[in-house]
Design goal:
Blueprint: H1 6-14, H2 20-32, E1 50-51, E2 57-61, H3 69-72, H4 80-91, E3 112-116, H5 129-145, E4 151-155, H6 157-169, E5 185-188, E6 192-197, H7 202-205, H8 212-232
Helix pairs in contact: 4-8, 5-6
Length: 241
């Protein structure tokens, strides 16, 4: 199978209209705007992944926020979840700067690529199962194009489930689905290590369920796993809770 080109894949993602409900919602949010951003031009389209084409670590979230990625055009950018995530990526050496405010702000990711299971902002942050399934092939194509990825860091249970589904699409031997948890690990498709992390939503970060120190530990583990799997290959029989 010919590997997809990332640039061509981004163009296909941005032009996607597979889910009428999500198209209507993302465009409505872009028209009505939030008062704090009323002078800004919203992206208002599906949001492609972003990062280093040679990345060994892929960070996977749920979907863009209506006034975050749907406004800025970059995944996990322009909202509190993104502020928390990119600050952690910078501390871990995966990002050139600790902030991500807009798709043209000069941020570079190093050995890391950030993506999501669903590319359009969903109402109340809840895509339907059909909308998820419509979108997951884009994540599968990203993984095909990102030939060096060995670790998929799943932010939340939705991303954990989506990563299992996607790696099943990529392999004749999908992983047995392990229970999601912060720091959970499992192997998939004989190639990837899935690593769980609580989602950096305000609900988690404001309550202390996810702290900066906890995120740092998981990102450090992602780097360790990426280095090890690059040297030795992923052992699909090994699982760690």
């Amino acid at each position: 199978m010919e590997l997809p080109c990332l640039d061509e894949l981004r163009q296909r993602i941005v032009a996607c209209t597979r889910c009428p409900r999500l198209v209507q919602w993302r465009e409505q949010a872009a028209r009505e705007k939030r008062a704090a951003f009323r002078d800004q031009e919203y992206w208002g389209r599906p949001v492609p992944g972003f990062g280093d084409p040679a990345a060994r670590v892929l960070v996977c979230g749920l979907a863009p926020a209506a006034h975050g990625g749907n406004r800025t055009g970059r995944v996990f950018t322009g909202d509190r979840s993104g502020d928390f995530l990119y600050a952690g990526l910078h501390r871990a050496g995966f990002a050139s700067q600790p902030t991500s405010t807009h798709r043209n702000d000069g941020l570079r990711l190093i050995d890391c690529y950030v993506s999501a299971c669903v590319r359009c902002a969903p109402p109340v942050n809840r895509p339907t199962p059909q909308e998820r399934d419509n979108c997951l092939p884009y994540l599968a194509d990203e993984l095909r194009a990102l030939a060096n990825v060995r670790v998929i860091l799943c932010l939340g249970a939705f991303a954990w489930d989506g990563a299992h589904r996607v790696t099943g699409l990529l392999s004749c031997h999908p992983a047995r689905k392990e229970r999601f948890g912060h720091g959970a690990e499992t192997n998939a498709a004989g190639r990837y290590v899935l690593l769980g992390c609580y989602h950096p939503s305000q609900q988690n970060t404001f309550t202390g369920r996810l702290t900066a120190a906890m995120l740092d530990v998981v990102l450090g583990r992602a780097r360790q796993l990426a280095k090890k799997s690059s040297r030795t290959g992923v052992d699909p029989s090994r699982r760690r809770r």
